[in-house]
Design goal:
It is a single chain. The protein is an alpha+beta fold. It has one domain (about 5-90). Helices cover about 40% and strands about 20% of the residues. The protein has helices spanning about 10-25, 30-40, 75-90; strands spanning about 5-10, 45-50, 55-60, 65. The chain has a four-stranded antiparallel sheet with strand order 1-2-3-4. A hairpin with a 4-residue loop joins strand 2 and strand 3 (about 55-60). Helix 1 crosses helix 2 (about 30-40). The longest helix has 19 residues, at about 75-90. The protein starts with a strand and ends in a 7-residue tail after the last helix.
Amino acid sequence: MTQVWEIHRFIERDYWLKRMAENGGSLTSEQMESVLDGISDKWDDYTFKLFRDGSVQIIDNDTRRTVRPSELRGASLDFYIRTRIRFIRSILQPHGQTA
C-alpha cells in the first residue's frame, strides 16, 4: 500500500479570501466577502490526497466524484501545481534543508 505524503482540503473561496487579504490593500473583511459574493455562488471544494509515490487522489467534496488533475482550473490548479512543486522539492533536497 502506498504511503500518504499529505492530505489537504482546498476551498476555493477561502483561497481567494486569503489572497485578497494579502494583497487587498485597504479592503475590510466585509468588503472582501462582498466582492466574492458577487463573483460566484459555486466554489471548488476538493480534498487532495498526495502519495509518496507521486500519485494523487482528488475528491470533489460536494459530489464525492474523483477529479483528474487535467480537470482542475484556476485557483485549484494553482494550488495543485504549488503542492506538486513542494513535493518534488521535498524529494530532491537533503533531509532537514530548506530552499
